[in-house]
Amino acid sequence: MSNSPSKQPNNPLHGITLEAILTALVSHYSWAELALRIPVRCFSNDPSIASSLKFLRKTPWARDKVEGLYTFMLRENNCLNAEKFNTDLNKLE
């Protein structure tokens, strides 16, 4: 049994492109909220996916912040879904 580095079942970023991460964040938070949470010009001044990707690919600290916010968003959504599921179960009782 080999521990292949290509298999990362516990890594929520595995197999997801930076473009998909950024698109999900903009869809969830909006450009304005994203600029408040991660204060970089590419999010606040005439934002676009293309210009933001160009910046993030050249700036590791900003990319780390974006990836961190994305994993936070995923955890937050999982908690909300679990709460909704539990509420729905309680209504059935």
Summarize the structure in short.
The protein has about 90 residues and is mainly alpha-helical. The protein is built from 5 helices and no strands.
Protein architecture, described:
The N and C termini lie far apart (45 Å). With 93 residues, this protein is mostly helical. The protein has one domain (18-92): SAP domain (Transcription Termination Factor Rho, Rna-binding Domain, Chain A, Domain 1), CATH 1.10.720.30. It has helices spanning 18-29, 31-37, 41-44, 49-58, 60-92. The chain is globular and about 50 Å long. The model has no long low-confidence stretch (mean pLDDT 84). Helix content is 71%, strand content 0%. The protein contains five helices and no strands.
Q: What value does the Rg take, in angstroms? A: 17 Å
- CATH H-level superfamily: SAP domain
* CATH C-level class: Mainly Alpha
Provide the helix percentage. Answer: over 70%
Q: What series of H and E elements makes up the topology?
A: HHHHH
CATH architecture: Orthogonal Bundle
Mean of all residue-level pLDDT scores:
84
Low-pLDDT residue spans: none
**What fraction of residues sit in β-strands?**
under 5%
CATH topology: Transcription Termination Factor Rho, Rna-binding Domain, Chain A, Domain 1
**Number of H/I helices:** 5
Distance between the termini: 45 Å
Task: Please name the defining characteristics of this protein.
Transcription Termination Factor Rho, Rna-binding Domain, Chain A, Domain 1; 93 residues; 5 helices; 0% strand; mainly alpha; globular; single chain
Task: Draw up the topology in text.
Elements: H1 18-29, H2 31-37, H3 41-44, H4 49-58, H5 60-92
